[in-house]
Write a structure and sequence with these properties.
The protein is an alpha+beta fold. Helix content is 46%, strand content 13%. It is elongated and about 95 Å long.
Amino acid sequence: MATIEARKRKSGIRYTARIIIRRAGKIVHRESETFSKKSLAKVWADRREAELAVPGSLEKLRHAGIPIKQVLEWYVEDYEGRTKFGRSKLSHINQMINDPDLSELDALSLTSGQLVTHVRRRSNAGAGPSTINNDFIWLRGAFRAIRIGRDMPLELQAIDDAAFICRKEGMIAKSRQRDRRPTIGELDQLLEFYGAMRLAKIPMAEVVLFALFSSRRQDEICRIRWEDVDECKQRVLVRDMKHPRERVDTWVDIPDRAWEVLQRQPKGDDRIFPHMGKSVSGSFTRGCKMLGIHDLRFHDLRHEATSWLFEQGLDIPRVAMVTGHKSWPSLQRYTHIDQIGDKYASWPTRR
């Protein structure tokens, strides 16, 4: 029960409302506020008592002042973000950690209005709807993980409400599925370009060919070790392979054309392609830019490889054995093909 005390001051009588909450005979919370009128003090005291009676409210006060930056840093720390998160996810989370406006917001008193303001600011700075949508995805994941892992009274309602209105108004949206595939002419340009770079540290022509026919991502290519090659079954073990909700060591079949590329690599290192995935991706991007090849990414080679397998008549289970997909429905979009047969049948794979 709140108490209200009247005190005479030079400016007149002031009324101080005090709230003291005891648990098991001990004071667990106290606060007060002073007003010029007794009626105002009573209104404040009644409102605050009602707010503090809500389950979890005292727990929130105990943790008050924890910024979103801290929650995100805990998320990376507790869930091995440096090693288990994908490169793009970790980069996006670090971007939010370094955002001077978002990162300093109080995580426990976060409002949907604050997040809508954040979205408008990001949009005005040039970020696209799908990019901003990732802010909500990773923020929601961090809040849920820390609420459970560190027993913090974090609420998701403000995030969900802000996401709802921003999605409805078109300020955020899911990423559009890419359907960009390299043409044979573009591949010829790239392989000729890389073939002329005799002293390059990364044999990009070989990496591109292996990706094109194996469907492997650049980081996976750079992790495969010779000891993970099964010569009898013509397959390799991709360690920590990326799946929607986890990373799992996965055996994948290697098609003949990719197998030829693998077999001719020198065995001077534990890894078949002893390079950094980021360096491979960067070299590919620079090569496309220098050659004037527009909007082609290294990951598009995986899309091309998957489509190529279906064009040769392989069914979903057979293709999944190569691509490593655990969810067959995710391969459905590749089954709508425009051509049948192996378009690379007469295309040389040694450059």
